[in-house]
Amino acid sequence: MGSRHEESQNQLLAAMPSAELAALRPHLKQVTLEHGSQLKDSGERIQYAYFPLSGMVSLLSVMSDGRAVKTAVVGHEGGVGIQSGLGIANAHSRAIVEVQGAALRAPALQFHRIARDSEKLRDLLVRYREFCFAQMQQSVACNALHGAEERLARWLLHSSDIVGSHVLPLTQEFLAQVLGVRRTTVTGLAQTLLQSGVIDYRRGRIEIRNRDQLKRFACECYDVLQRLPPQYLRSKR
Fold first, then answer.
1. Whole-structure pTM over 0.85, yes or no?
2. Which of 52, 27, 29, 54 is nearest to 39 (CA)?
3. Which residues, in sequence order, are bridge partners of residue 29?
4. What is the average per-residue pLDDT within 173-185?
């Protein structure tokens, strides 16, 4: 069972109507999000709804030949497997823990039962889905129109916001997947930012040294995404 303090650390749980959150509370269990662990896979039945308290989870679109591309990241602002509350039984993407943290999780079946009987909760979940869709739309436009250096700066800023730290345990493989470039390209881009004094870059670790300057490297999409505030999720209780 999650405590009220823990629940307040996840913005989606904090936005839930009081009665529905009280009904969900006995089913919430705190779990560790181990780096590299898989929370769900594309096409599989969703077993749990996860509400991250810390850390970061990557969502990947998986091709038939096994190749995968990261399409989004989720942190304490949202959840993984949340569509189960709307009666969607199978996952559309793979979810991998990118930065270790903690989460509250609930069995998908129980979460669906509570949402099925609550118009307010279903409305919140639909608005959260639209929130995620807006983020993905912006990312599609960004990938098509902006250069790799601008997109790298945006991803570093966005990841920092989600993790809540200027030190990011991100690998070249992660950055190459979200940017859609080779790892050698990531190395070159990181060197440019390193030489500019914007970041400190070591194997598997990036430290943002000058956030304001990094924003100047980033494309406009970071500001657009910032204008999708947490209040977007809030509903009347």
1. yes
2. 52
3. 105
4. 85
